[in-house]
Amino acid sequence: MRSLKKKSLLKQIVIYTLIAIIVYCCVSFAFTAILFNQIFARGELNIYEIAPDYADIDAEQYPRMLVNFQSGSNQLQGYIYNAVVGAEGLILPVHGFGSRADHYLPEIMYFVDSGWCVFAFDGTGTGESEGSSLRGLPQAEIDLRAALDYIYTDDTLNKYPVALYGQSMGAYAVATMLRDCEYEIAAAVCVSGFNTTFDAMQWQAKKSVGAISNLMYPFVPLYEFFLFGRDAGGSAVAGINASEIPILIVYGTDDDTVPFDVIGIPAHADEITNPYVVFLPCDAAYRNQHCTVHLTQDAAAYLLETRAALSDLHARYGPTLPEAEWRAFYESLDRERLYAVDTDYLQTIIDFFRVAL
What we know:
The protein is an alpha/beta fold. The chain has 2 domains: 53-196 and 234-294, Alpha/Beta hydrolase fold, catalytic domain (Rossmann fold, 3-Layer(aba) Sandwich); 296-340. It is built from 11 helices and 8 strands. The N and C termini lie far apart (83 Å).
């Protein structure tokens, strides 16, 4: 009798445990879906944005042609600069998370001044492109492939050798795309890039909620696979090793968004077998952070100071600033100083590309 009771109790424990596991998995998967929907909600233009904008530059000196191309079910907005006979090649910038093509105008203008054609674009769910959301980090690689499809089927653009320039999420997209690239790419530069999407998501989650983020360990890659199929689970290092092109890995030594020695591509340097990879660390104060490597030291310091001052305004007034306060703040900015590029750094990029051609 006791033996039957013990077996019955054990059976109940097993059943309840299985039910608990199933409920935990279902709830966690649903929570992950909600989290993705919030994190990757469409990046509408922020009226309080401190970033370069085409309206602020000399359009006559830097004219551009607007084009559209498909990425899945969405039409993306592309911008072509300096598509002239005699351009040295085409540079394709791929923007980071929370950014859009215009945010890279300081680099784009330098590339154009150096004699290159540039094809920039707003990714899915950002800027002037369609899409109700960004969907997830792997979408950047999908959009990059769609941009390359457009370039290589365009009778003007497909005459140029192509070089890739990706930053953060864009750097991940550039590197992972190389693992299965059907087009000829001359060289690539990856700035502040992470190795895997899971690394990036897990790092940000730990910064936000601490150790509790470990509970979601299996569900982020599972949900990514649900959304993206074979396009999920990519590795920057795997893409780098699958290619035989020159790749410049740039990183800031004080980057706390993608710390180079934790989730950055350089953290996996001992796994890289591509003999044409070069690492370029930036350890200069202020320039050594996530989005400031391309700026002069003064511009980087000024940008960080400006963003801190804007945060103080929001702390005082809340999400919506009084129009007079915002206007006074915005008009006080020295935009020329704010976006001054480090010409030595960008010339290093140009020289790297030229050697590869």
